[in-house]
Amino acid sequence: MNSITERFISEAQNGKTVYINDVRECFAQLKNEKIRRFSLALVTAEGYKRRFDYTIPAFNVPASVQTGKTEKMPAKELEALFIRDYCMAELYNIISCLGARSMKFYTSEKSAEVTYIYNCFIEKFGIFTERAQRKEYGRAVNVAERILDALDMRTDSKIEVDLFDTADMPSDFMYAAKRQNCGFVGEKLKEAVQKSDKGILIGIDVGGTDIKLALSVNGKLTALKEYDWFPAGFTRIHELIDPVIALVDFMRYRADSRFNEITDTAMPVEASDELIIKCTEKAKQFAFENGIELPLYDGIGLSFPDVVVQDSIVGGEVFKTRGIRENPAVDYEKEFRLITPLNKMLAQFVKENGVVGIVNDGPMAAFSAAAETAYTDTSSVNTGVLAYTLGTELGTGYLDGEGKIPDIPLEVYNFIIDLGSWPEKEFSSDDVRSINNFNTKLAGTLQKYTSQSGAFRLALKYFETAKPALYRQLFEKNFLYEKKEDAKSQGLYTPTSPKDMRKPFLEHLMSLAATGGNEEAERIFCEIGEYLAVAFCETQRILESSANKAILFGRLVKQENCFKLLCRGAQKRIAANGFEAADDEMAATPLMRQLKDSGTYTIAQFAQAIGAIHYASYRKNVI
């Protein structure tokens, strides 16, 4: 066994984190004759070309890798397993970020190892398998193919895959050009902000635990509303669609003060669906009886937690749709397609010359940050903006130097960054202690490292032995409960009903870290910062982003000390100023300053919704 591989495997077995970029860098430095090389030539859905080169140690190719406990595997099979999983993770991260129209593999050695890796890719990614039958890595292929469906206007797209000799690689892949930045996006963004002072605009931020809506009338922030929900528990797509439509319908009446008395009771966060619909119907009746024209929006900007292409929701592999995806009573492909035209459903509430603009929550974060920055300094965003949202999941957004949001998945929360921590793989994905992805069941993805799930997992990991009183308190406060899995094990879970305890659990951990003096609580956020730094490095490498820092949104950064802890942990991997918090300091535009001065809500809560207002103006007035 190669000594480097042996070291990584030993660390993984002992519960240590083994970062994928460390493995790649160590393998790349191998120079003896016992190495194998291959290249991936990828074409994105948009036709953009990328090349990725890999070096791996030579290894004994097994007839098959055994399943079961890794500590019982022979050393040769364990080495093959680790190298195979490293290669699968690399390919999975690339597809999760860029998608693909074609993936061509090239090697000059025709080695058994490279052939084995290629065949494993075909099998594990389900390249020739129907979408409904794909699992684990194959879920990223489903998203990539749905993007092709949307762009090519079909329903049966397939990624083109093959293995060739390096001598046959097309010349335009030898030195693939990087994306070019035009350097004028700042002016476009500033214009969009300035023109958002006219008309009725609404920004909607759809999340995994709530929906936030911000309404602007002629440049005045007129209404802010929060709505709690748990979409992962839905079993039909209409349960996801109906609340969004009902809220957009309801909020338009807040644009006219004559409807305030009727709609006031449905503004609190605890207002039920029935009350929202009832108030909406009363407002419509009042308008009819008094000859008032029903308000219509000039623009709707919607941030949605799934892959979006040209205003159409096309991903379908996120945690929010898990309940629908696992419902045996529906054909998931057909069911999911019902939400793809959500933009057309919302168009009924928009004026004839208005717009409905929908993007993923990550790109909306990037757009929001860029708009705020460009309002006072247009040149600072001309090379693009990279942003992350840290909450229920990790959202990632990129706005390039042309002011364009690329038609790519950019599902960075699915990136596999940890090839170690093997003991934590033994827990089921829903167990708080597990590092296995909720959707794909794959281990080591950012979903269990940088989101609220990461904070929960680390709290159990460190509190149980170092802070037993705090550990017991997690159960006393109903943040955790035990459920018997089998005769030998107990699972640990966070309640989502009758009351969703995820927000309170995270707030509790943040308050422990914020007060200072609690080393284990502080350690949680430092480690999340280190994980996020690895994510930043991997995003820049695959995406070829020219951004030298990332702007962070969401609940995990709204507390100042928690953000400082994230930055402290990140410094192990990136520069000290690699992250910037989307807090009150970023408020530059008139709408964001109004939010800052509201005294009720914070920028960390509603920045995305304000950004969505600016995005609606951007789509209506600028592009």
What this model shows, in words?
The chain is α/β, with parallel strands linked by helices. The chain is built from 21 helices and 17 strands. The strands form five sheets. A five-stranded mixed β-sheet has the order 7-6-5-8-11, with helices on both faces. A four-stranded mixed β-sheet has the order 2-1-3-4. Strands 13-12-16-17 form a four-stranded mixed β-sheet. The longest helix is centred in the last third of the chain and has 25 residues, at 519-543. The chain is globular, with a radius of gyration of 25 Å.
Please mark out the parts with pLDDT under 50 across 5 or more consecutive residues, or reply none: none
Percent of residues in helices:
40-55%
The class by helix and strand makeup works out as: alpha/beta
- Terminal Cα span: 57 Å
Name the beta content range.
15-25%
- Biggest sheet features: 5 strands, mixed
